[in-house]
Structure formats: structure tokens, C-alpha cells
Amino acid sequence: MKLEIISMTPQERMYSYSQSSQIEAQTGCIGHLRGDFGAGQEFFTSWFEHRGEYKTDEFKAEFDDVVNSLREKDGLLFSRDSMTRYCRQRPEAEMVGNYCTEYGFKLKTDQHTYMLRCNPNYGDYNFYLYAYVGRFLEHHMEKAKQGIRFITPGYKEIFRIPDGDSIRIFTGGGETRDRTCRFIDEAHFETSGGYSSALYHICEFAERLEKTHGSVIPLRSSLPPNCLSILPSSGELIILTRGEKGYLLSDMQIKGKSNQEVAEIANHAAGITKAQEAAMLAGSMFGWQTPAADPKNYDEQGQPIRPKQRDRGDAR
């Protein structure tokens, strides 16, 4: 069997982990194979079933062919050394795992999609191969592109986050809770974090916040955890933290450089763009739920992108 193996996109990486029962049902997750190479050349595996109704004889035969193809000499699952070489040659597949760097790959057949997460480290499980009904997974991922809406009880949209992003909930009692959110459909999402997970209708979530005098803000993955900026009123060098109001003064100095230049040098070294810095400054000043706190609303120079004017037709 000849397989095309491609690196996962950031959106696809979420599907190389076990999901909730709701998402497993929507994506047609048949199950996953977990394995390790033992001392390096061995091959130990365990199968975990998720949606057994899709485990047809045709799937079982295809799955065996897929695994055997990956097990061919010098293939991705031939040995730990073979996996290590394959992954290092494809840095675009690198992703942040639960506690170490992992690599994600996608394989497709006519009927199924396979998400393969690899960890070449000795002493760990070395791979997880998730099998999906291809058309169900693609449909769910396409719908999830619209993002997760957060609204008022009157259905006015406050903000929207991508599937898999996080929020911070401020309770009426003064506590904060950070939760990861997953798209279910246009009106439902689920949260996970801490020791619990929950499924919500978007209006139900808004009503609960209002009833408990709580609030919610996005913790956008498109923003860095921290960055440097300049306080507009004084020109002082400040530290901004994602999700927090206000700022801290920074004592960082570089001989012969102004505060503005120091901020630019430090942010550039950390891979932080001017658009991200502008969004961080706006979020710390005006609230993280505002459109100004989203870096997609700025150009490369950190200047706001003007909304396109709608064509109103001929004036009468």
C-alpha cells in the first residue's frame, strides 16, 4: 500500500489526541493504536476502540495495510531510530505535546483519515495512530473553522475564538478559571480544564455568567504570554501579560538604545510581531474581549486595519 504522509496543520493536531464522546461521534473516531518500540526495534501495541459501529471488516483490512506500510524498512514505524530520522527531516511537523516535543502526520485513504502523533523518546509511548471516518472528520473540521461564539443573554456577540483556544472565566466570587474550548456546532461548545469538562449552549453559558455576576475573556493562542511595549502616556518600558489588565514597569536596558528600540529588539528575539504587541497593549488597556485585542486586526507595522467600506449603491 502506497501512502502519502503529510505534516498536520495546527488545526489538525487536536485530532491526534482522544476527544470527548461528542466530538468522537461527530468526527467518526473509530479508535486509536498506541505503541512503543521497546529497546528500539521491538513493536508493542494496544488498540483502544471509540466508535465501534464504524469498525467494519473493510476498515480492519485497510488498517492492517496502513500499519504494515508504515512498518516497512526505514518507514516511520520501522524502529525508534527510523522515526527519529523521519521526524527530524520534517521540522514543520513539530508540535508542543503534553510534556515534550512531538510530531504530527496525516494519512488519507478513500474512506478514512489517520492522524499519527509521534514521540521518538526512549521510555515513552512512541506513537498514537487515530483512525477516523474521513468524510465525518472533514465535515466537522470545516464547520469548526467558524469558531466558537461568546454572546450576551440577548444573543449579541462579544467575541469569537478558534476551535481549541482558551478562555478565562471570572467568577462572581473573585476566582478565575482557565478553560480550553472545543467547537461542537454553531450553538454548542465544550470546555475542559482542571478536573472537569462541560457541554454548553452558548446562550446557557451567557445566562450562567450573568446570574453569577461573572465574566469571560479570550486567551488567544495568537497572542504571546508576555511582551514588552511602551506606555503611550510616558514612553516608559512596560511588560504586558496576556489576559491581565494593566502593566508592570520593566527595568530592562540596552546601552545606547531607547525604550522603543529595547522593546523592538526583545520582542523580535522572542518572535513577537508588531501586530501582536499592538493587540496586547489594547487588551491590557481596553479589555481582552475587544476586537482591538486581536492581532488579525493589525497590519505588519502594528497599525489598525481599516474595515472595508460596504458598497451602498447609488445615493439617491
Number of helices: 8
Structural class: alpha+beta
CATH class of the largest domain reads Alpha Beta
Largest beta-sheet characterization = 7 strands, antiparallel
CATH topology of the largest domain: Beta-Lactamase
* SSE arrangement, N to C: EHHEEHHEEEEHEEEEEEHEEEEHH
Polypeptide structure, described:
This protein is globular. It folds into 3 domains: 5-142, Beta-Lactamase; 146-219, SH3 type barrels (Roll); 226-297, no CATH class. The mean pLDDT is 94. With 316 residues, the protein is α+β, with helices and mostly antiparallel strands. The protein has helices spanning 10-13, 21-27, 57-70, 80-88, 134-144, 202-211, 259-269, 274-286, and strands spanning 5-7, 29-36, 44-49, 94-96, 101-108, 112-118, 127-133, 148-151, 157-161, 166-170, 176-185, 188-193, 196-201, 215-219, 226-230, 237-241, 248-249.
What are its keywords?
alpha+beta, 7-stranded antiparallel sheet, SH3 type barrels, globular, 316 residues, 5-stranded antiparallel sheet, Beta-Lactamase, 3 domains, 8 helices
Task: Give a brief outline of the structure.
The protein is an alpha+beta fold and 316 residues long. It is built from eight helices and 17 strands.
Indicate the topology.
Elements: E1 5-7, H1 10-13, H2 21-27, E2 29-36, E3 44-49, H3 57-70, H4 80-88, E4 94-96, E5 101-108, E6 112-118, E7 127-133, H5 134-144, E8 148-151, E9 157-161, E10 166-170, E11 176-185, E12 188-193, E13 196-201, H6 202-211, E14 215-219, E15 226-230, E16 237-241, E17 248-249, H7 259-269, H8 274-286
